[in-house]
Amino acid sequence: MSLLDEIEAAIPGLRRYAHALMRDRDAAEDLVQDCLERALARRHHWRGDGPVRAWMFRILLNIHRDGVRRSQGRHLVAVETLPAEPSGPARQEAHMDLREVQAAIARLPADQRRALLLVALEGMSLVEAASILDIPEGTLVSRLGRARATLREMTGRAGPRPAKKEGRT
């Protein structure tokens, strides 16, 4: 598969991730377009030392970070690519649960949200997501753990906390 074919194959995933980061379809499409333009203009920089998909996601994330810095963090996040209407019985309750999770993801700190979306939404491995975020794998695991725990608390699914054991005197 040629470099251009691999870039083209990455587009659907880039769109999903951009939509989740931006919360605005038009802004997300602009982000993907900027990513594709940059990748094509700099394809001679591609060294072939990893997956093209990871390289593309890194470009997209860097463009997004630059935009956030310029706009001083005004972008909110939503996971618009999740199904709007879950199938099966109790659809209204499931729909409300989905919206609650989407809102909770939007309130996560940016570093945790980016990590969670790469792994949970895009299904990337820890190694690939850590490479895209340019962080050690252990840091990624820690961010994912904090993000998941925070989501459980925000959505009331944390369960009872274990009682603290009293020390002996």
Automatic annotation (TrEMBL):
Keywords annotated in UniProt: Sigma factor, Transcription, Transcription regulation
Classification via SUPFAM superfamilies: Sigma2 domain of RNA polymerase sigma factors, Sigma3 and sigma4 domains of RNA polymerase sigma factors
This protein's record includes keyword Cell inner membrane: no
Similarity field: Belongs to the sigma-70 factor family. ECF subfamily.
Domain RNA polymerase sigma factor 70 region 4 type, chain residue ranges per copy: 99-151
Source organism per UniProt: Defluviimonas salinarum
Pfam family, one: PhyR_sigma2
Residue ranges annotated for the PhyR sigma2 domain, each copy included: 7-60
Protein name per Swiss-Prot or TrEMBL: Sigma-70 family RNA polymerase sigma factor
Taxonomic lineage: Bacteria, Pseudomonadati, Pseudomonadota, Alphaproteobacteria, Rhodobacterales
InterPro entries: PhyR_sigma2, RNA_pol_sigma-70-like, RNA_pol_sigma-70_dom, RNA_pol_sigma70_r4_t2, RNA_pol_sigma_r2, RNA_pol_sigma_r3/r4-like, WH-like_DNA-bd_sf
UniProt key word Metal-binding: no
